[in-house]
Design brief:
The chain is mainly α. About 80% of the residues lie in helices and about 0% in strands.
């Protein structure tokens, strides 16, 4: 298996008169995006309720139990790249649709069962063991979900709209966030704080079964992607996706470049602008939790449309230019934002960083799927995306915390993060290639001209 390189055709792509999405195209995007909704619903649900979960499933003082709860959360995060390999391999061997059904079922059931799981007081050590196992299963399925979703949408998208179509997948992270916040808030108000801490916290996990039912019903009605169906009919599906994808240097160098020069750079800004910003407001500026969450939520909500804007822009000016534009805009904001002291200034900085990283992330799924051949398209993009996120999130947090802890200077930490992003962007500029206009319906991606 080889990845055919070449300059993408930009003469006619994006120049055609815009036509509205068909009903079937909307259905493809919606079905594929449901996994991202589930991902972020569960992500914020567990994160928001970590303190309560710690008391329910672990024994020890509040600090120790909270750390154990976070470690359980981290376990699900760490296994995501492995999930991308496991389920991506299945997607490249047996098809996108059936793998899609498996991943959404595992994700949904793993979230739902947490709401039914007895606590440590009832079943002892089995409680935390089962909880950690559920988090790992959820992480594995989630790791395979992203690559499958991006691939499925990209292979259905019409010529000249691939960037626009796949960018919709990213917007649903915001939907998952707000769904979790609304369900938690509604449950708290309905049952009261004492009852919520005792048993009401289970309701948001149990409610997720409704989203699971809708997801499975819609995905069962979907057809296999045209590119995979064509490969299967031609007998060109991969018999050994992992060895073909990772066993040849011509493919591995594409993976390494996309990992280091693209996904890691964007993820550093994403996690700094969203999660570390939240931590900084709470721990350093001592802003109330509710106020800090509201500021970040507003920033995320306002910035979300830029996923679509930059995805569509990449259909006109190219993937590489759109990613570079959004990335370069983030650099001066990082250190400047770090020296702000008021909550609204921090919130504005968070919005600016969200706006910029939305631009890059809006193009990433298209770029990754166009970068590799169809018979490795489910495994490679998902693996690169998940591993890049994992490394960058740890890197951004450690760099910022070390600078703040040892030098008492939060701004220095942000300057270090900005420097990291600058280096990664330079790598992408130097070695990344343009992919817009590449034909992806065959077993090997190739320019259309």
């Amino acid at each position: 298996m080889a990845i055919t390189s070449g300059t993408a055709d930009s003469r006619n792509v994006g120049s055609k008169k815009a036509t509205p999405m068909t009903k079937e195209e909307k259905k493809v995007i919606f079905a594929s995006s449901l996994g991202t909704v589930f991902e972020w619903y569960d992500f914020y649900l567990y994160g928001s309720l970590a303190a309560i979960i710690a008391k329910q499933f672990f024994i020890g003082d509040p600090t120790t139990t909270f750390i154990f709860a976070l470690l359980a959360f981290a376990a699900g995060f760490i296994v995501r790249p492995f999930g991308a390999i496991v389920f991506g391999r299945l997607g490249d061997m047996i098809g996108r649709k059936y793998t899609f059904l498996v991943t959404i079922l595992i994700m949904g059931l793993s979230t739902f069962i947490v709401g039914l799981l007895p606590g440590h007081a009832s079943i002892g050590i089995a409680a935390p063991i089962i909880l950690v196992s559920l988090r790992i299963l959820q992480g594995l399925a989630l790791g395979g979900e992203y690559g499958g979703a991006a691939t499925y949408v990209a292979e259905h998208a019409p010529e000249g709209k691939r960037g626009l179509f796949t960018s919709w997948i990213q917007t649903t992270a915001t939907m998952g966030l707000f769904m979790s916040l609304l369900v938690i808030l509604g449950t708290r108000l309905a049952v009261g704080e004492d009852e919520f801490a005792a048993w009401g916290w289970r309701i948001p996990f149990l409610v997720s079964v409704l989203l699971l039912g809708i997801s499975v019903w819609i995905r069962m009605s979907m057809q296999e992607s045209p590119a995979f169906a064509k490969m299967k009919a031609e007998g060109k599906t991969s018999k050994a996706p992992l060895s073909e994808a990772f066993g040849q240097w011509k493919n591995m160098k594409v993976v390494i470049l996309a990992l280091i020069g693209l996904t890691m750079g964007q993820a550093v800004v994403w996690y700094t602008g969203q999660f570390y910003a939240l931590f900084f407001m709470q721990q350093t500026l001592k802003i109330e939790l509710a106020t800090a969450n509201i500021l970040i939520a507003i920033a995320l909500l306002l910035a979300t449309p830029f996923f679509i804007f930059f995805g569509a822009l990449s259909d006109r000016i190219g993937r590489k230019k759109a990613i570079m534009l959004a990335s370069l805009l983030a650099l001066p904001v990082l250190p400047l934002w770090a020296f702000s002291s008021g909550p609204w200034a921090i919130g504005l900085g968070a919005f600016l960083m969200q706006f910029m990283v939305q631009g890059a992330w809006g193009v990433v799924p298209t770029y990754l799927t166009e970068l590799v051949p169809a018979n490795a398209r489910a495994v490679l993009p998902g693996f690169v995306y998940q591993l890049g996120n994992l490394i960058a999130s740890v890197n951004a947090t450690l760099q910022s915390r070390i600078a703040e802890a040892h030098y008492g200077n939060y701004g220095l930490g942000m300057a270090i993060v900005a420097g990291t992003v600058a280096v990664l962007i330079c790598l992408f500029v130097a070695f990344g290639r343009e992919t817009r206009g590449i034909e992806i319906s065959g077993a090997v991606s190739k320019p259309t001209h």
